[in-house]
Amino acid sequence: MAWIAVYGRRQALTVDMFASDDTTSYYGDKKPIFGLAKTANFPLPQGITKLILEDGMELGDADDKFFSRTNSKQGSGSVGILTDGLINRADYYVHAAILALTPWIRPELYQS
After folding, report:
1. Long-range contacts of 102-108, Cβ-Cβ distance < 8 Å, separation of 24 or more
2. Positive or negative, the Cα torsion across 10, 11, 16, 17?
3. Confidence (pTM)
4. What is the pLDDT of residues 36-79, one digit of tens each?
5. Alpha helices, DSSP H only, in 1-112?
6. Which residues, other chains included, contact 82 with Cβ-Cβ below 8 Å and sequence gap of 6+?
7. Residue 10: its pLDDT value, please?
């Protein structure tokens, strides 16, 4: 059994996924394997940060307001507009997804 999730949160990732019933059920003597990785961090302009922290806006909505765009989270996202298109929203997640899969790519290194 394998599943993948992409979190987009400002808060710290909790251990809920590790403490759930899904992670403690496995077949026979096979223990579950976990992969966890994160994307890069980058600074946000102060105006966007203010909209998020003080006005409680979601990042995509704050981007739309700050840059006078519409539905940016379905397009290039914050990373796209801040890097002037050098990194788009899809590319931003690729390395994290691959790194989260390392236990399946090299299982011999992760078996206990």
Report:
1. 102/35, 102/37, 103/33, 103/34, 103/35, 104/2, 104/33, 104/35, 107/33
2. positive
3. 0.67
4. 788 888 999 999 999 999 999 999 999 999 999 999 888 888 99
5. 16-19, 21-24, 46-53, 59-67, 77-82, 89-100, 102-105
6. 42, 44, 45
7. 52
Radius of gyration, CA atoms only, the chain: 18
* pLDDT at 108 (0 to 100): 87
Contact 89, 77 (CB under 8 A): yes
Q: Which two tokens stand for residue 72?
A: 């940016």
Can you give the pLDDT at residue 73? Answer: 84
CA distances from 38 to 5, 15, 67, 99 (A): 11, 15, 26, 8
Residue in this structure with the two tokens 């006078």, named with its chain if needed? 68
Residues 6+ apart with CB under 8 A from 65: 51, 57
